[in-house]
Amino acid sequence: MKKTFKILSLVLALSLILAGCSGKSADKSSTDDVAPAVPEDEEITLKVTFFEAGFGRAWQEWLKEEFEAKHPNVTIELVGDANLVETITPMIESGVDAPDVFMTNGSGWEEWGPQGLVLDLTSLYEEVVPGTDMTLNEYITDVAKDKFFFDLGEELGGVKKYAVPWSAGPMSVVYNAKMFKEYGWEYPETWEEFEALCEEIKAAGIAPLTYPGKYPNYVRPFIRAWQLQDMGEEKFFGEFKNPTSPEIYNDPAILNAFSKFKSLFDNGWIMEGTTALDHTQVQMEFINNKVAMILNGYWLEQEMSEAWPEGYEIVMAPVPQAGKIDKPVAFMNMPDYMAIYGKTKHPEVAKEFLLFSLSPESCEMFAKLAGGLRPFKYDLDNVDVTDFTKSCQDVVGNSNYYQFTDASSNPLMFKTLGNDYLTQISTGEMTPEKAAEEFYKEAQTHYEQTKEDLGL
């Protein structure tokens, strides 16, 4: 991946100081195949709580069975929680019913790490991943490092790691490959070709594109790709993600992205009624051949597993090339993470469980049992997975695509996509110009308030 131009994060250092806590570092272990030592002379129960949603629980059940087989004195207590995104915060911050290990989504670990509420896993990243000859530092992809490597500044120990990726994969355009074959369409390389394709699809009486209109965050791969393509690599990964002033959020790329979004509606390329539909409703329209392409993620096939017709074919594709980036752009969505509660009674067992869950075999089983992908250096050559999963894996690792994420651990970054503005643009209630103006004002407020909160 391209260098991500991280600044020395004085902000994060001050955040750590103001929190009044010093995250307790884990002791560095040996680099055996499974390095952290698990006591064998006591019965241990490890509570593992996970967000039970689109990926189901079959993979966690497999992890439990395999780990317990390796360590007969350890019992893995699995707790699936469909509301874990909401319930994990009070558990971790109060300690009541807190799990030893948890798998969820969001960015809570960024706040909890410096406070000591989750374990410092920096030394774990120096350990060899089971089934490989690579340390976790070497095994994780560069795109994932951009999110999970937390820079506290040299005076406070440099880069820290408080979490490991659970699931991550592409969020982009998914197209109906069967329909494309029937009409002789080809997915384009450039944005100009994409616009021509949309016109061709529309002329055939089919809606070119849709997304879950009630949840405009699904437009993220377009908005972020357009901003990256307009700004260029250095500005996007530098000032945009690590701002030294809020002026970057008044960059022309912001207005251009809003304007480009509006053009999708102005040109009649968005399926009629999209703005009123949720993700399930719009996905059913895609399944029922009402629309040729949908903005969605690598979880789509698994999430709608009971609805697909026999013989369906869908493919994940990158955002076509445009602007200052000379390749199609692949946006990596990585909201899911795994972490260890800071006050667990069994830190070494928990760390070994995490390390075991990252092995190539575990990643292969995650693809097989849950249809999920992970940002590590493994392949699916010997795994019986669907063609859609293979297409997602191709987008993750294809050197002909520019992989990136918009994640940032810098609290000064204005991470908001502008969902409310996107909704109002889509319904004609707001112009792109007004949206850009309001976005900038909101970014200014966020920047100044964050500086004040951190005492800068």
Automatic annotation (TrEMBL):
Residues 1-25 form the signal peptide. Gene3D superfamilies: Periplasmic binding protein-like II (3.40.190.10). SUPFAM superfamilies: Periplasmic binding protein-like II (SSF53850). Keywords: Signal, Transport. Pfam families: SBP_bac_1. The keyword Signal applies. Belongs to the bacterial solute-binding protein 1 family. This is N-acetylglucosamine transport system substrate-binding protein. It comes from Tepidimicrobium xylanilyticum. The lineage of its organism: Bacteria, Bacillati, Bacillota, Tissierellia, Tissierellales.
